[in-house]
Amino acid sequence: MLEAGQLSLTAARTLGPHLKPETADELLDAAASKTVDEVKQLLAERAPKPAVPTSIRKTPQRRDLQPASLFDSQASSPSVETPVPKKPATRPEPLAKDTYRVTFTGSSELVGMLEEVKTLLAQASGKSCDEAEAIETAVRELRDRLRKRKYAVGARPRKQKAKTKSQAPTSKLARRTRRIPNPVRRAVAERDGYRCTYVDPKTGRRCCEIRFLEFQHVEAFSRGGLHSVENLKLFCRGHNQFAARRDGLMTGWPQGASCGTRAVDADAADGPGHSLWTAG
To answer: Could you tell me the pTM of the whole model?
Structure first.
């Protein structure tokens, strides 16, 4: 599985403590072609952990040890150093099927705003609200607002004004614009699940990047491609620029393109032509 690319070394190390002779084959088959995060989620579903209690505390400050003076009456007593806790993991840790352990360091302003949001939500709903519910509500509203801006999800359609003969375009070239209509953007984003759709032709694995997504034309817009749902798909920035350079639509791109935190192999892709990465 390692040689075929179905399992990474990190995923194998994560699975190691859970592999038993009677269930090893079935667990390895279930973890095939999955990312490390997906493997952790798989293990959390099979062996769920209890939810962790909510806690907010001030980060302890480290005190520098000063050399004791020869004339200091307290020189004989050693200085006490405040223990510094280990830096918590920045990535969410799956506990069960639908629960995660999230740990992060926030500012005093964030804590104050969180308390105010909890109070306002409790007044609006008539029941108490904890920190997790307040953060989930705030993040959901922000996500919906950003999705509406980028993918036109939830946007109201504009009323079409009747055009007179004098306002009608005189040629097909005048009607072509690089702006993708809102209904098309919305349909493509929902169909692709807000995730890069590039598939490695060697391993058959789909890119798991959800950041820096861009609309990609199957038939390049500069070569007559249309802004249609069938001719558009979501690519991350690294695969979008790589495809444009590979198809001769962009020059000067290095041999290895960056895709989030991973590198894009210049010789790995093979498939139909794509459009300029500035299609949107």
So the answer is: 0.63
